[in-house]
Amino acid sequence: MTSADTGGAAPRRPGGALRAPAAPLLGIVGAAKHAYQLYHPPLPAGRARTPADKGLPLLHKTVVASFDGVPLRAWVVPGAGPHTVIVCHGMGRTKSMALGHIELLHRAGHHVIAYDMRNHGDSGADRALGRMAERYTSDLRDVLHATAADPRLRGGAIALYGFSFSTWPALQVVRRSRVPVAAVIADSGPAYDVPAGLRHFAALRGRTLPPWLRGPLTFAAYERAFEFFAMRMLRLTDWPPDLSAYDTRLMFIVSADDTFVRPDAVARTARHYPGAEHWTAAGAPHMRGLRFDAAEYEKRVLGFLAEAFDASEGAMGGGRP
After folding, report:
1. pLDDT of 92-123, one tens digit each?
2. This protein's superkingdom (predicted)?
3. Among 14, 44, 22, 12, which residue's Cα sits nearest to residue 221?
C-alpha cells in the first residue's frame, strides 16, 4: 500500500497510537530507577588502589552504622599527629578517589580516616527508599565518634573533608555530633538549591540516556520525576544548616570547569556562612582541583587546616574531649 492508497497520509505503524501516552510513563519509570541508583550506585569493577600503593602506612577499621547496622569500611592512615582528617568521597565513587588527598594530608603530619559510604565500595548496602540524608549524616557521625574514641588517634582535633555529595552530610553533622568538628572542607559542593541541582544532574544524564528516554515528552517527564523521586528519597531537612552557634571553620573549594555542581551554586552556599573561605581551582573539572591546580590547592588546604587546628587546640586546652 502506498501513501496514495490512504489519501496521501503515511501509513501508521502498529502501536503508534500508544506511543504519545506511554512516553511520560517511560520517563517516570526511568527516573525512578536512576533516582534509586543515585544512592545505590553500581560498584566499580576492578581492584581499587589503596594507600599502600603509595607507600603509606595502612590500617583497617570497621564502623557499624547505628542507624541500621550497615558496616562501614575505613582506612586508617596514621600520621605524626596529633590531628585527624576524616575524608568522605563523592557519590558513585569510593575512598580510592581521594588517594592524592590522603597522601597530601599524611605528609602534612595528619592522621587520615577515609571510609566508603554505605552502598559504596567495601561498605555494606541497604535497600532503603527514604531518609537517605539522615542515613548518610548518621553514618558520618558514627565515623566521627569512632575516630574520637580510637586510642591510636587521641590527642588532637578532627576535621572533615567532603567531596561533592558528601559535602552535604559533612555540614549537617557539625550540629548533630557530640564530638566538636574543628573544620569542614567542602570540595565541589554543596549546592545551595538542592532541587535545582538535581534537575541539573538529570539534564546532564540526558546525554547518556538510552534512545527510548530521549524523546521530548519522555525526557520532560524524566527530569521532573527524577527530581521528585531523588528529593523524596533524600528527605533533606533544615538546609542549609544553621552553624552560627559553632566555632567550626569552613572552606568551600570550587572547580572552575565543574559541569556537575555549578560553581555559582556552591558560591551561594559559601555566602550563606559569614567568615567561610571560598576558593576556585583554575581550570579544574569536578573534584579535580588538586590535580589541575596542585600548588595553590595544597597551599590553601594545608594553611586552612593549620589555622583551624591551632584555633581548636587553643580552645580545647591542647587536647581532644
Report:
1. 999 999 999 999 999 999 999 999 999 999 99
2. Bacteria
3. 22
